[in-house]
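Database export, one record per block. Field names are fixed; values are copied verbatim from the stored entry.
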Amino acid sequence: MLTIEKPGSAEQTINKSRFYASAAHCETEREVGLFLRQLAVSHQNAHHLAYAFRIKTADGIIPRFSDAGEPSGTAGKPIIQMLEARDLIHVAVGVIRYYGGVNLGTGGLARAYGGTAKMALDAAKIIPFVEMHALSVSVHYNQVDALTRLVAQLKGKVIDKQFDQAVIVKVSLPVSEIPAFKHQYAQSI
């Protein structure tokens, strides 16, 4: 599986209709909603905003798409097919259409939406997908720097720190690195 590290966008005009696509990394349906809302606000005069996304959850992969008022199967489906063909996960693609007055037909619409989505994905930086897992660790104040360095070495991220009598640090780590992390902080998890 693959995912997007840096977003990509693309634009093309086909028979006077302008298509603009944006591809971004989204880990939840809420993030997808925020991404699409931002895209809609940026293109308020657009006629259609078709989209597709694939997100991995504990229950499996969630694929969703919308034709946004275009004929069934002509907008969202070609976009989701681009995501599935590349085995992309935690990725959302929105394609905006400014109608140019010329009907493209169902085949033309599918090629336009799918092609513009492909261009946006080509412009994005695609990397291997690494499954992450969140953990909370309680450490003394003098251990926070060492913990932060270890998390960085393991290619993880510090998500949050709460300071009280001890410091509760929430981290996100690659699943493959959790045994090494637990080995050093087993009593603190």
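Remark 1: Strands lie at 2-6, 8-14, 17-25, 48-57, 60-66, 91-98, 125-128, 132-139, 157-163, 167-174.
Remark 2: The mean pLDDT is 93.
End of record.
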